[in-house]
Amino acid sequence: MAAKSKSYRFTFGPWNISTGRDPFGPEVRKEVAFAAKLREYKKLGFDGVQFHDDDAVPDLDQLDAAGIDKAAAKMKKMLDGEGLFCEFVAPRLWEHSKTVDGGYTSNSASERKYALERSKKTIDIARALDCKDIVLWLAREGTYIREAKDPIGSVQRILDAVNAMLEYSKSIRILGEMKPNEPMDQAYMPTVGHFLALCYRASEPSRVGVLIESAHSILAGLDPSDDMACALWHGKLWSVHLNDQNGLKYDQDKSFGSVDLRRAFNQVWVLERAGYDGCIGLDVKAMRTTKPGDQTRHLANSKEFFLRLVDLARSVDEKQIETFRAERDYEGLERYIVLKLLGK
After folding, report:
1. In DSSP terms, which residues pair with 55 in a beta bridge?
2. Is the confidence at residue 5, as pLDDT, over 60?
3. ∠ CA 235-340-246 to the nearest 5 degrees?
4. Which of 11, 67, 247, 343 is the most exposed place for a label (fewest CB within 10 A)?
5. Beta pairing partners, 209
6. Distance CA 48, CA 85 (A)
7. pLDDT (tens digit per residue) in 192-233
8. Which of 74, 70, 68, 107 has the alpha carbon at shortest distance from 91?
9. Has 55 been annotated as catalytic?
10. Vertex 211, ends 209 and 217: CA angle to 5°?
11. Confidence of residue 3 (pLDDT cuts 50, 70, 90)
């Protein structure tokens, strides 16, 4: 059981303060300047920033190594000025014209080379930001039709890319962020379990783990707390993206706990009981109808809901829980939990 006094560090990405654009409509709010977004972090009670590579270094494909280092150093100075740290950096391998058929798993050798070189640039940026964690969201590592790629070879190509990054830098950790679909129809490595299996085939398994996003587990028909528990058992849950989701739809990134409060409680309870010491990342989006003046409320709300559920988890009577279990009184246990959620 985690210590009652344990505190958490909170992070989010600049993409979580958005224009409200979606696949069916344009922007509904004006873009917020990056520096202005950074100033919101401490106001909201957050400690660190999650980055895509080009969040930290815009237009990085047009820069040489010296230019990338200079731009990353400038970003590090901005972070230090706001009292923030960089939690992770992730290569953005799903928007470039060379990654339309995937990056690491593309059928084109030149496109696979681009993806790996871009990933190495991400590592360089992370080093400049004093960050050791590289997150891989394998967005286009999959297919629209299964015959389009060699599925066995594709898994090997993902492992090859992971090993190449581990070889490039001996100080980084790689965190796989798995998602079963979207933008691809079907993804390779669709679940946490798939990537955990890959971890142990890596050249240095101790430096490969996972980031679990609530919505991604839900999209796979799984309970996020069970995915978290499995990864925690392996000692490989190194970050989380907490949010919520209405069923097996597109990735909604709703405020944490806003759809299924009991499901959210179980995630918090698992993290608490395991003594999870990673960051609490909140990957949530403001609703499209949100007014510009309220476009950070989803972040404040999610943090508040999480902390209230922490208090709730810490108020659970462990001896009572064990009594219910020993007596197989699951009706009694369910009543106990539901009444807790009702504030009784």
Report:
1. none
2. no
3. 65
4. 343
5. 175
6. 5
7. 999 999 999 999 999 999 999 999 999 999 999 999 999 999
8. 68
9. yes
10. 120
11. very low
What pLDDT, on a 0 to 100 scale, did the predictor assign at position 62?
A: 96
Whole-number average pLDDT of the chain:
97
Supply 27's token pair.
């922007």
Q: Which two tokens stand for residue 297?
A: 């409320």
Active site residue 52: yes
And the tokens for 234? 């392996």
Instruction: Look at residue 2 and tell me whether its pLDDT is greater than 60.
Output: no
Nearest to 118 by CA among 53, 207, 172: 53
The pTM of the full predicted model, rounded to 2 decimals, is 0.96
Over the Cα atoms of the chain, what is R_g? 20
Q: In which residue are the tokens 């895509």 written?
A: 52
Q: Which of 52, 216, 241, 298 is catalytic?
A: 52
Q: Which of 22, 47, 54, 55 is catalytic?
A: 55
Mean pLDDT of 282-292: 97
Q: Are strands 186-187 and 133-137 parallel, antiparallel or unpaired?
A: unpaired
Helix (H, G, I), strand (E, B) or coil at 237: strand
Domains identified in the chain and CATH numbers: 10-341 (3.20.20.150)
- At 150, list the tokens: 């060699």
